[in-house]
Write a structure and sequence with these properties.
- Among the domains are: about 265-405; about 410-470.
- It has a two-stranded antiparallel sheet.
- The chain has helices at about 15-30, 35-45, 50-60, 70-80, 90-100, 105-120, 125-135, 140-150, 160-175, 180-190, 195-210, 210-220, 225, 235-245, 250-260, 270-285, 290-300, 310-320, 325-340, 345-365, 370-380, 390-405, 410-425, 430-440, 445-455, 460-465, and strands at about 5, 10.
- By secondary structure, it is an all-alpha fold.
- The longest helix has 22 residues, at about 345-365.
- About 70% of the residues lie in helices and about 0% in strands.
- It binds fe (ii) ion.
- Fe (ii) ion binds near residues 200, 204, 235 and 239.
- Fe (ii) ion (FE2) binds near residues 204 and 235.
Length: about 475
């Protein structure tokens, strides 16, 4: 006998208790609240034959994007596969997805989850897995369209609809449809205020549009919804820090780093990479961050050579370079060179993006800015293939521009800054950096004009503490 969850999706169990626990775990995961693993472990302790429980558990480890999670992913998948004959087609689809991921084919895994959604468009767990998979693969358009596919089968009467809208909002944002993204994100939150993914989608809109005051207001006015006890809070704090960084408020950025983004030691890959990405942005601006790099580099060293996902490699390399760890940087590059011969999705992503990016960061650390420029110009336009969001990958453009400035390539820096001011004319950082490029070219009057634009965009207290390197 099969039961159906509250969205009408079949679950091959006769235990109402097991299904209830799965519903709880699913809702915790949708809102990134602790602790879906504990919830599903309780279900499996009571009912070891609960096949969807094993599939759910495999998915949890799969999306952690960590090598250390692989044994538990394998254990859960094998437990599910041992029950395959009692499973339904939907559950066998989940197994196929987890199996593809475990074998290193991340694209296949996402498509398998997506296949489940063709037959079961209300399988919100499959949708979340596919959505996060698209994020890890940098498939911006599919972040939008894979969610759009299921929308005809959802409405406000179906439990969890707000979360579906939150995912759609993020996909719209990553597809540069900012107006629709914001409206959809706000609609999601009207239904489900404590959805940190929808909060995040709107925060991204504000980041991309350079609405710095709006972004600060957006996040700080609703911290009670997204921050307490939330596994995703570090990333929304990171977004708040980005707005302050653009305003030159580096003391506030470091305060957010210490209190919210990296309040304690953590070896969680996604938390580490946000920490590194923020410190690197400060590094590019010449800000002294004290011993923060050392703590991060210490954490990366034992795990760097065996990363599961090359987006993490870039951030490990930043830590090694900024902390002057040349040996660790060399070992990381050697590991990446070995990996690209091995195949799998991560091997391909490493070859196409991860390796050249890490070489570029290493060259930056050595002061070989010309090499950084050459490498990043080539890789920048395909960098989405190693995953992340536009806002995260912007660190590549910022590194490229800083390298161009330091290599006295004023015309290139001027051109790259023109890209940015066209897209985001309200960013003080963009105008201050434009001024540096113009200075380099000897265009003093235009440089003064650009500096004046930046000053006009800065709050008074921020304009007094702007911290930029004048090359
Ligand atoms: Fe983000």
């Amino acid at each position: 006998m099969a039961l159906h969850d509250k969205r009408g999706v079949p679950v091959s169990t006769e235990s109402r208790e097991s299904l209830d626990r799965l519903e709880t775990a699913t809702e915790l995961l949708l809102g990134y609240f602790a602790d879906p693993l504990a919830a599903i472990d309780e279900a499996l302790a009571e009912n070891p034959a609960f096949v969807m429980g094993h599939c759910f558990r495999a998915g949890l480890f799969l999306i952690s994007s960590e090598r250390g999670a692989e044994p538990e992913l394998r254990r859960s998948l094998e437990a599910a596969e041992a029950l395959a004959r009692k499973a339904n087609d939907r559950e066998r689809g989940h197994m196929a997805a987890a199996r593809a991921w475990l074998e290193g084919d991340f694209h296949e895994a996402v498509e398998r989850y997506s296949s489940v959604l063709i037959d079961h468009p209300r399988d919100i767990f499959a949708l979340q897995m596919a959505h996060l998979g698209d994020f890890f693969l940098g498939q911006s358009v599919m972040l939008r369209d894979r969610v759009a596919r299921v929308l005809p089968d959802w409405d406000e009467a179906v439990p969890g609809f707000g979360y579906v809208l939150g995912m759609h909002a993020f996909g719209l944002e990553e597809s540069n449809q900012y107006g629709r993204a914001e409206a959809t994100g706000r609609r999601a939150l009207a239904l489900m205020p404590r959805d940190p993914w929808a909060v995040h989608a709107v925060a991204h809109v504000m980041e991309m549009q350079g609405r710095l005051a709006d972004g600060i207001e957006w996040l700080t006015s609703r911290t009670d919804d997204w921050a307490p006890e939330n596994m995703f809070a570090f990333h929304n704090w990171w977004h708040l820090a980005l707005y302050h960084l653009d305003l030159g408020q580096t003391d506030r950025v470091l305060q957010l780093y210490d209190e919210a983004i990296r309040p304690k030691h953590s070896a969680v890959a996604l938390e580490m990479l946000d920490a590194a990405a923020l410190l690197w942005r400060l590094h590019l601006r010449g800000v002294d961050v004290g011993n923060r790099w050392a703590e991060l580099a210490d954490t990366y060293e034992p795990m760097a050579e065996d990363a599961y996902y090359t987006f993490n490699d870039m951030h490990a390399m930043m830590a090694f370079v900024a902390d002057g760890r040349e040996e660790a940087a060399k070992r990381l590059l050697a590991a990446l060179e070995r990996r690209i011969t091995g195949g799998g999705t991560n091997g391909v992503m490493t070859r196409e993006v991860g390796l050249p990016v890490c070489r570029a960061i290493q060259a930056f650390g050595k002061g070989d800015y010309a090499t950084t420029v050459d490498l990043l110009l080539l890789v920048r336009t395909i960098a989405h293939r190693f995953g992340g969001s536009h806002a995260q990958r912007d660190v590549l453009s910022q590194t490229l521009i800083e390298a161009a400035l330091r290599d006295n390539q004023g015309r290139l820096a001027r051109a790259l800054m023109a890209e940015r001011t066209d897209l985001k004319p309200t960013s003080p950082y963009n105008w201050l950096t434009t001024a540096r490029a113009l200075d380099l070219l000897g265009h003093r009057i235009e440089a003064n004009r650009a500096n004046a634009k930046a000053a006009a965009l800065l709050p008074r207290q921020a304009s007094e503490s702007v911290n930029v390197v004048m090359a």
